[in-house]
UniProtKB/TrEMBL annotation, chain A:
Membrane-spanning ranges: 17-37, 57-76, 101-124, 136-158, 165-183, 218-238
Entry protein name: ABC-2 family transporter protein
Keywords of this entry: Membrane, Transmembrane, Transmembrane helix
Keyword Transmembrane: yes
Keyword Transmembrane helix among record annotations: yes
Natural source organism: Oceanobacillus neutriphilus
UniProtKB/TrEMBL annotation, chain B:
Protein name: Multidrug ABC transporter permease
Record key words, sorted: Membrane, Transmembrane, Transmembrane helix
Transmembrane keyword on record: yes
Pfam families noted in UniProt: ABC2_membrane_4
Gene coding for it: cdd3
TM segment ranges: 20-39, 59-81, 102-125, 145-164, 171-189, 209-228
Organism of this sequence: Oceanobacillus neutriphilus
Domain of life: Bacteria
Length: 242, 236
């Protein structure tokens, strides 16, 4: 298993694709520095930054870029019969799928951490003197990562199914764009898997729990969609004709 | 020559779901407002005296995002149908100029996006009628907000097609597209010269036709740049 993950890593390591991860902090810096927001009047200046930065980042960027990463990780195999070569090795299909997924979520975690750095940088550049609310930021960084786990599973599934980048991306877009509207709804928002990154990263939620959304919502919506997409993709890959 | 190339390009995208996408884009943008108005129609009617205008503006919050993402998908797709089977070499080996090849791709993508705009007009008009927002229908505004975003998005189309045709790895144009859509989403924070702001039709002067004219002018410029670069490059 470790060797399969290693080989996935080798395929990515020297490709310029790692630069993709740096897009996240750049976007963070852009959103954080492009506007001046002082309407909220919160007690800590960091909160204002976090509200604005996290919303754009989590509504559109995070779901979309996770799809791109999933396509990237299948790109080598889609070229020149790579699937045949990979699966001719003494590895099971299940392990290949699992190691691709694990590498993907590690990359997403790395991206979230870089975004964290960009939040800090924005504060430094703007000269925010309030104490950095580390506990809140951690919640939202880690929560956003947990919320993308099911989305990554679905994107890995469709990226394995389609050869081109355009088709998985189109599916991703179709589900991601409605988020802008859905999250405004108290009734439907909590049940929409693509809205979860925003809800988990939005610092307005309850502070007693580990995350900003209640546990039962995480377990049912995030957990449920994760199981559906992951098992669906896993079974699809086991049966796929290469 | 160019006509047969365009025909060939249309043949290549047959049964690949691109026409479906052309329908889903405008339909989705209007369908989101169907849900929005279905859930809280009374509240939305109170927001502005001119109910038609408010409805059109609501639709226009999604149009730029859909257009930018649609362009990203279409251009990346047009490039990947050649990439996947190493068909660039075969295509260029035919007795056609590389400039015509590029022009044909550009034409096909523009045609699909333009057709989407026509559909957007029809859907926006059709659903607007069912809402009962008064007798005097603002035809001119409806046309403005369905067709001008297309013209204003031409520079984005030119840029995405350029990057998609010259990159071997389609992750690059798609990531550029993701960045572009973030810019389009934060249009109100951006200065007027950012091309991703133009499809939102807002500018300092308050005239939406300026964005469309700028779009056509700068779109032709980016198109020419892309074409010249495509022609000079070695075929992958």
């Amino acid at each position: 298993m470790v060797s399969v993950i290693n080989s996935e890593w080798y395929k990515l390591r020297k490709s310029k694709v790692i630069f993709l991860l740096f897009v996240a902090p750049l976007i963070g810096l852009f959103i954080g520095l492009s506007g001046s927001f002082n309407a909220i009047g919160a007690m800590n200046e960091w909160y204002e930054k976090l509200v604005v930065m996290n919303s754009t980042y989590a509504i559109l960027f995070l779901p979309l870029i996770s799809g791109v990463l999933a396509s990237v990780i299948c790109r080598y195999e889609h070229q020149e019969g790579g699937w045949k070569q990979l699966l001719a090795l003494p590895v099971t299909r299940g392990k290949v799928f699992l190691s691709k997924y694990l590498l993907l979520i590690l990359l997403m975690l790395a991206m979230q951490l870089m975004y964290l750095v960009s939040i800090y940088l924005v504060g430094m550049i703007e000269g925010i003197t309030d104490p950095f609310p580390m506990d809140i930021v951690w919640k939202s960084i880690f929560g956003g990562w947990v919320a993308t786990l099911p989305l990554i599973a679905l994107q890995l599934w469709v990226s394995i199914a389609f050869k081109s980048f355009a088709a998985p991306f189109a599916i991703n877009v179709i589900f991601t764009l409605p988020t802008i509207l859905v999250i405004n709804s108290e009734r439907f928002g909590p049940y929409y898997p693509w809205g979860q990154p925003f809800l988990m990263m939005n610092i307005g939620g309850s502070t007693e729990d580990v995350f900003f959304v209640p546990w039962d919502q995480i377990l049912t919506v995030v957990g449920g969609s994760f199981l559906l997409f992951f098992i669906g993709g896993y079974l699809y890959f086991l049966k796929k004709a290469i | 020559m160019i006509l047969s190339l365009v025909k060939a390009d249309f043949l290549k995208i047959k049964r690949k779901g691109m026409w479906l996408l052309c329908l889903i884009g405008p339909f989705g943008v209007v369908a989101l407002q169907m849900v929005n108005y279905g859930v809280r129609k009374d509240y939305l009617f109170e927001q502005m005296d001119d109910r038609w205008l408010y409805y059109i503006l609501n639709i226009n919050t999604f149009t730029p995002l859909a257009i930018v993402l649609g362009i990203v998908i279409l251009t990346s797709f047009m490039a990947s149908i050649e990439d996947e089977t190493n068909a660039w070499k075969q295509l260029v080996a035919l007795p056609v100029s590389k400039r015509a090849v590029y022009l044909s791709k550009f034409t096909v993508v523009s045609c699909i996006v333009f057709l989407s705009s026509v559909l957007l007009f029809l859907f926006m008009f059709g659903y607007g009628l069912t809402l009962g927002m008064g007798e005097d229908i603002p035809y001119l505004r409806l046309m403005e907000y369905s067709f001008l975003p297309f013209f204003a998005a031409l520079p984005v189309l030119g840029l995405q097609l350029w990057v998609a045709t010259v990159s071997k790895n389609q992750a690059i144009p798609v990531t550029l597209g993701v960045v572009g859509v973030i810019l389009a989403y934060s249009a109100s924070l951006l200065p007027d010269w950012v091309i991703w702001k133009w499809p939102s039709l807002s500018n300092e002067w308050g005239h939406s036709y300026i964005n469309a004219l700028l779009g056509i002018g700068f779109g032709v410029f980016v198109y020419l740049l892309g074409m010249i670069d495509f022609k000079r490059r070695d075929v992958k």
